[in-house]
Amino acid sequence: MTIQEPTAAPDQFIRLLDRSIEKQGLSLREVARLAGVSIAYLSRLLSKQRGLPAKKTIEKFEKVLEIEPGRLFDAAGLHDALASKVFKSEGARKFLRSIEHLSDEERAKVLQEAVELAKKYHPEEHES
Q1: In CATH, what number does 11-84 get?
Q2: Looking at the predicted structure, is the pLDDT value of residue 58 above 60?
Q3: Which of 10, 52, 87, 97 is most buried, judging by how many CB atoms fall within 10 Å of its CB?
């Protein structure tokens, strides 16, 4: 019988997780406790002996380590709940395809305009 080795989480995910732990100045034990995983699991994850955690666990890591929501999912090659919801909309796909060939500067302008529209139509969500 052949034993299949687990597929390690992507390097980008592991690097971001490791750097974030270091930046926060937390021990692995503290991070594991706050995220609701075992210290052994976190250690194996960081040493590439475990695959990607469940989405709920990735969300907990983002919260505990104060990582911008969605960044750890991006590093994992996954979509967080918000991105998944948005990508189900055909309008969102059409919008993304329409800006595909814009330069970074042009996309930044489109993003700024979108932020301004969001503030205009949903000011309660953008109050300081």
Answers
A1: 1.10.260.40
A2: yes
A3: 52
